[in-house]
TrEMBL record:
It comes from Actinomadura yumaensis. Residues 2-56 form the HTH lacI-type domain. InterPro entries: HTH_LacI, LacI/GalR-like_sensor, Lambda_DNA-bd_dom_sf, Peripla_BP_I. The keyword Nucleus does not apply. Keywords: DNA-binding, Transcription, Transcription regulation. Residues 300-343 are annotated as: Disordered. This is LacI family DNA-binding transcriptional regulator. GO terms for molecular function: DNA binding. Residues 332-343 have a biased composition (Basic and acidic residues). Coiled coil: none annotated. The lineage of its organism: Bacteria, Bacillati, Actinomycetota, Actinomycetes, Streptosporangiales. Pfam families: LacI, Peripla_BP_3.
Amino acid sequence: MTRLDDVAREAGVSASTVSRALTRPGMVSEATRSRVLATAERLGYRHHPAARALATGRAGLLAFAVASLANPFHAPIIAGAQEAAEEAGSELIVVVTDGSAAREEALFERLADRVDGFAAVGPAAPAARLAEAARRLPLVTLNRRVRGVSSVVIDTPGGMAGLGAHLAALGHARVAYLGGPEGSWLDRRRLRELRRAMPDAEIAASGPYPPEFDAGTRAFDAVAASGCTAVVAYSSTVLLGLLHRMTMKGLRAPGDLSLACADDLSAAGLAMPDVTALRVPGAEAGRLAVERLLDLARSSRPGTPAHQTLGVTLLPRASTAAPGRGAGTGRRRGDRERARPVE
C-alpha cells in the first residue's frame, strides 16, 4: 500500500509538505500542490481520515440522525445531505434514533468526539438540551426550530393552509386529520394551520400515527366514526394504508371520501399518483442542512444561528372533489396536473 512517505519521495518534497498540500493547500505553492496531487494520483495514494483529522482538527465525518429508515419521507432528505457532504469531501454517517430523545442524546454523546457536526431531522430532545448541544458541537435541526440552533424547516404548515382552503372551496365542512408522528413540533403547526384555513369546518384530529402503512389501516375506524367527507393525512404512507382499508370496505375516493396528504412521494412510487398532496423539497432541505453544518464546522466562531424555511407546492388532484358529487368529478387520470405554489 502506498504511504505518504512514498508520495513525498516521488514528488521530491518532505512528508510534511505532502500533508499540507492534501489538507491545507493554501500553505503551499500552486506548483507544489499540483505536483503532489499528480504524484498521489499516479501512485494511488489515499489520504487517511485520521491523518487529516490530526492535520486539520476535523474528522471529515458528519452525523445525520433520523427517527427511522423505514419512513420514505426521509429518503430524499438523506440523498440530498449525502450529495452535499460528498461534494465537500466529507462522509455522512446516518444514525437512527427511533424517535427517542434519550437515544438522540446518547448518540450525540457517543459521536461528539468523532464527527465534525450533527444534523437531526425532527429531533425529539427538549429544546434546552438541543441548545446546550449546539454550544458544544455544530448542530443543525431539520423540521424543528429551536432558539440558539440553526435550522432548515420545510413549510408543510403553510402548505396545510393552502390545502385547507382547497377543501373549503370544494365545500367540505367535516374533515378528519390523521396526525403524527408522536411529539412532532411540526405536526402541531400543521393542525393549527388547517384549522385556521377552515374556520367554519369541524376538524376531527386523531393520532399520533407512526409513518407506517398499518397505521393507516388502523386509522380507518376513527375516520369512519368522525362522519367526515374528507381526510388529510400527514404522511402518504399512512394515507395509503387508509386507502387500502377503504378499498376493502368497498369505498372509493373521492366518491365516498376525499383524500389528501402533506407529503407527495408519488415520484418514488410510494403514493397513488392522483392523490392531492403537497410537494416537499426534501433533497434541497438535506443539502442545505449539510451546507450549513459544514459552515459551522469550518468557523472558529459559531455566530448567530441561521434559520431557513422552504416552501411547498400544492398539487390538487383527482382524490379531492365536492362532497357527494361522485368519483367522476375529480381530475381524470392522465389530465395535466395543476400545481401552484403555496405562499
